[in-house]
């Protein structure tokens, strides 16, 4: 069995790939929302910071999904493929970690090159959830 930090790094890389698969899909809001912690923040290039509402009532999850739906509506990040390189997982503790990387995404002749960073926290249910996701165009 791999040491715990290696398993955490592998989990973070897997979750980041799930995030980018969702972000580059035709309708990403629901899948991205499922990956988010209750107060996740997103920092996308040339946009205001997107801060999700903490789950204070039974409608917060639907409100967050609607908010993400507006922000992530096409043509936002609609790509056919992506690749993550220079992936560097950093274990903060047994229940938190950050991934930094370069991302290249493609659609027809459009290329999106950025650096990215996502901080993840593990809940009591064992699921990794986004705390903060940030992208910077290069």
UniProtKB/TrEMBL annotation:
InterPro entries, per the entry: DUF4440 (IPR027843), NTF2-like_dom_sf (IPR032710)
Domain DUF4440 span(s) in chain numbering: 15-130
SUPFAM superfamilies named among the record's database cross-references: NTF2-like
Protein name: DUF4440 domain-containing protein
């Amino acid at each position: 069995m791999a040491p715990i930090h290696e398993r955490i790094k592998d989990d973070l890389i897997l979750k980041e790939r799930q995030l980018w698969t969702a972000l580059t899909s035709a309708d990403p809001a629901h899948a991205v929302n499922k990956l988010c912690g209750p107060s996740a923040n997103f920092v996308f290039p040339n946009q205001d910071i997107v801060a999700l509402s903490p789950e204070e009532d039974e409608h917060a999850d639907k409100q967050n999904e609607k908010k993400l739906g507006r922000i992530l509506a096409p043509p936002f990040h609609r790509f056919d493929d992506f690749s993550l390189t220079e992936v560097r997982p950093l274990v903060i503790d047994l229940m938190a970690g950050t991934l930094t990387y370069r991302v290249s995404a493609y659609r027809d002749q459009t290329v999106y090159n950025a650096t990215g960073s996502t901080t993840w926290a593990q809940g009591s249910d064992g699921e990794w959830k986004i705390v903060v996701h940030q992208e910077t165009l290069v």
